[in-house]
Design a protein that fits this description.
With 280 residues, the chain is mainly alpha-helical. The chain is built from 11 helices and no strands. The model has no long low-confidence stretch (mean pLDDT 88). One of its GO terms (cellular component) is membrane.
Length: 280
């Protein structure tokens, strides 16, 4: 039960991250690149401060930083730049679809094949997610944006997979944020465009970085120790649905029949994939 509650809390943190991002960008309080830079900076500052107060040092030069910080940078950069040219719903669908495929593939190559029930559950959940997020009207996919979102999905999948080997979730997450900060900042600033961020934008980005990203990612590394990679991949399909539900409850967005049906498919698919049968 404890693992279930912590996993739900982590998914809610990820969904809240999405809501804060939408609040800042859709309201014009920030542009995507500026939001991402401040988000990583706030996460690095808060997490590093907590670790230094507790342990006195950060494992910055651990070999795990190559995969951890590198994949975090890839995710942040690809995610932020892709949404400049990609529909939000389609972007989320590409992102989480790539995460599923990558984590399932890596797990299979390592010798742990997913069961038929896990594959079926993931397929049902992904189908439900596609039903909710698929853009209405004519579909125009920007190839650069799609490629960047695919890169972001691969980055997040790697970040999740290497989390199982992190001995200290908080220290590892803090070090990843600190090492990823200069790479992410330089790459995002190089994309061009004037820096645009209001006081409200700074507040939302700082909250996203310090709490829903920083602490959420640390908690994710904590629960990853107890989850199989396949389960970790599937449960993340709940994040876009939780974000949309949060938008309905907090932002006054419409709750459609399409959302209700799609959410049912996503949750049912996740349940099929992760719940074990109890033998009689």
């Amino acid at each position: 039960m404890k693992l279930f509650l912590l996993t739900c809390l982590t998914m809610c943190a990820f969904a809240s991250n999405s809501i804060l991002n939408r609040l800042a960008i859709d309201s014009g309080a920030s542009d995507p690149a500026a939001f991402a830079v401040v988000r990583v900076l706030a996460g690095a500052a808060v997490l590093a401060g907590l670790v230094l107060l507790r342990a006195g040092h950060l494992p910055l030069f651990d070999r795990r930083r190559v995969a951890g910080a590198g994949s975090l940078s890839l995710y942040m950069i690809g995610f932020s730049v892709a949404y400049l040219t990609l529909d939000a719903g389609l972007g989320a669908l590409i992102l989480f679809g790539v995460v599923q495929v990558t984590m399932f593939t890596v797990t299979s190559v390592k010798g742990t094949l997913p069961t038929g029930r896990q594959i079926a559950g993931a397929a049902i959940a992904l189908l439900g997610l596609g039903y909710v997020l698929w853009p209405s009207g004519s579909l125009q996919v920007n190839p650069v944006g799609a490629a960047l979102m695919i890169a972001a999905g691969i980055g997040w999948a790697i970040y999740s997979l290497v989390g199982k080997s992190e001995p200290d979730a908080l220290s590892g997450t803090a070090a990843n944020f600190v090492v990823a900060l200069p790479v992410t900042t330089l790459a995002l600033l190089a994309t061009g465009g004037a820096w645009h961020m209001t006081a409200n934008g700074y507040l939302l980005a700082a909250l996203a970085g310090a709490v829903t990203s920083g602490m959420g990612y640390a908690l994710w590394y904590q629960v990853l120790r107890e989850l199989t990679p396949t389960t970790a991949a599937v449960v993340q399909l709940s994040v876009p649905i939780l974000a949309i539900i949060g938008g309905v409850l907090l932002l006054g967005e419409d709750a459609s029949l399409r959302l209700i049906l799609g959410a049912g498919l996503v949750l049912g698919g996740i349940a099929l994939a992760v719940l074990r049968r109890t033998p009689r």
